[in-house]
Backbone:
RNA sequence: GGCGACAUAGCCAAGUGGUAAGGCAGGGGUCUGCAAAACCCCCAUCCCCAGUUCGAAUCUGGGUGUCGCCUCCA
């Protein structure tokens, strides 16, 4: 089985064959840190994270570049609005992104270059374009002339006339064509600047990616990724710049685009009030549940985020871990088989099929159940089966255990004041709070149960349930009790 | 106005020619002081219409609907 991927360039699924056997060079458009990273970012980067893991697991030596566009109009606007230096905005949101990336378990890119540290390469590329006669200077910047590129529009499948018909915005008259885009923007007073042959200024959006691709992966490389919304104009313009500058095409043999995320059926946006900051969500749910949720949908399909769906995904993943733990528990004695009863070929085949993570996840759920059943009749199978399943989890970037995924006893619980007071009354102690208070109530309930005072024990359990703490008694003999939530 | 994607059970969702994976929720049962957990079982004919085919959720044509792109966006 070999990897097949949907290529935006050809709008079809093709066998994936890197230029150099055994090696893959891939570039994914990263963050522009001008605001809080959101759930949509998570989906895109999670998609390419799984691709990266799958490629590596398939034996490829992958060079993965994920850039940071750390200078751009929105960053400047944001800084102006807040009255802080532009680089403070960058640092703040980039730190926030990196914190989230860590929680989500995103593998570190081989390189994560930043636009502001690539100025010589950017300037050099613009000079090349000028030398080739496809760029021109105006009083406010340097522009790329789209009509000089006969292939313009090939990635997004648009032609210039169509695009011009859609133009809505009054255009700066100095541009020769409304579709021409800035390679370099000459600075207005107060804006951050870098020196250039055209005077102090900053790069236009798009050119930084062309420059970084070339520097880290060369004039041509295997795969370029990003989210769907980047196809036009960002990637189209990147292609135009790079290919006219180098004369080599295609700059990337495969283009992959992750589907966009909607929230409650609508595009996520600040104005609609449905903007979901990644960090906030990761504080409420285990990151692994978020990952599981996204992997449950094909990466190219539009995905709709709802709380219900995420909670369902969280429970589904939790259930998988519980079953896996059961298999582990029976892996104790006996001579382990060298091979598992559960073969992972099917799992790999799903991923080879244009990264069908949803199918792979479905297979995994079934595999765990089978492994659990097998462990009962044949305990010796457990070892190998656990290994197979853990390998699969690893390729999907999911932790191996519920604990590692962040499901822990609620040590740091914060009780709602009303519930806290109820619990304190039941405990007969007005000082206790949080986990200690919950423990006290559970202890009292155990006593009541021992005395067969079920009315009292139920009252205590109901109070805990109301406070969001779920009590799960285990089968007598197992001892102990489980506590979940809130 | 132009371009495109999507449309499978209450929800999330896989499945591109042979009679519908998986998860969540729901229902029934075993067990249990009760509840939970665990285990077993049940739960869709695939937006509509017309075609192609021995046979279609899967192909073709026509509708309808939702979302998106054409301006900033992962």
Residues:
């Amino acid at each position: 089985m070999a990897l097949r991927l949907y290529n935006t360039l050809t709008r079809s699924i093709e066998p994936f064959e890197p230029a150099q056997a055994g090696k893959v060079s891939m570039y994914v458009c990263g963050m522009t840190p001008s605001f809080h990273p959101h759930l949509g970012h998570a989906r895109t980067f999670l998609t390419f994270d799984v691709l990266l893991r799958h490629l590596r697991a398939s034996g490829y030596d992958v060079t993965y570049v994920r850039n940071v566009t750390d200078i751009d109009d929105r960053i400047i606007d944001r800084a102006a609005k807040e009255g802080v230096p532009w680089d403070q905005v960058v640092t703040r949101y980039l730190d926030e992104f990196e914190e989230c990336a860590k929680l989500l378990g995103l593998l570190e890119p081989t390189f994560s270059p930043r636009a502001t540290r690539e100025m010589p390469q950017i300037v050099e590329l613009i000079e090349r374009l000028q030398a080739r006669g496809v760029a021109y200077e105006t009083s406010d910047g340097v522009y790329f002339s789209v009509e000089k590129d006969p292939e313009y529009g090939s990635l997004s499948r648009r032609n210039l006339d169509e695009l011009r018909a859609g133009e809505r915005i009054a255009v700066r008259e100095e541009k020769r064509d409304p579709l021409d885009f800035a390679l370099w923007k000459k600075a207005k007073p107060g804006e951050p600047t870098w020196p250039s042959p055209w005077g102090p200024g900053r790069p236009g959006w798009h050119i930084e990616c062309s420059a970084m691709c070339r520097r880290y992966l060369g004039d041509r490389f295997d795969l370029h990724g990003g989210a769907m919304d980047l196809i036009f104009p960002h990637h189209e313009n990147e292609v135009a710049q790079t290919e006219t500058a180098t004369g080599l095409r295609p700059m990337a043999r495969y283009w992959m685009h992750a589907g966009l995320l909607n929230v409650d059926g609508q595009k996520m946006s600040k104005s609609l009030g449905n903007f979901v900051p990644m960090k906030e969500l990761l504080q409420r749910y285990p990151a692994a549940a978020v990952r599981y949720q996204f992997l449950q949908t094909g990466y190219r399909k539009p995905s709709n985020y709802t709380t219900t769906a995420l909670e369902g995904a969280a429970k589904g993943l939790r259930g998988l871990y519980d079953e896996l733990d059961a298999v582990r528990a029976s892996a104790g004695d006996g001579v382990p088989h060298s091979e598992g009863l559960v073969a992972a070929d099917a799992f790999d085949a799903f991923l080879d099929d244009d990264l069908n993570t949803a199918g792979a996840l479905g297979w995994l759920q079934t595999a765990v159940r089978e492994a659990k059943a097998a462990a009962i009749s044949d305990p010796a199978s457990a070892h190998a089966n656990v290994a197979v399943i853990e390998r699969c989890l690893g390729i999907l970037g999911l932790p191996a255990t519920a604990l590692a995924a962040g499901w822990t006893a609620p040590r740091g619980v914060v009780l709602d004041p009303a519930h806290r007071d109820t619990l304190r009354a039941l405990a007969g102690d007005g000082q206790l709070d949080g986990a200690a208070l919950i423990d006290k109530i559970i202890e009292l309930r155990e006593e009541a149960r021992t005395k067969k005072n079920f009315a009292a024990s139920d009252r205590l359990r109901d109070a805990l349930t109301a406070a969001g703490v779920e009590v799960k008694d285990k089968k007598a003999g197992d001892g102990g009790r489980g506590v979940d939530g809130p």
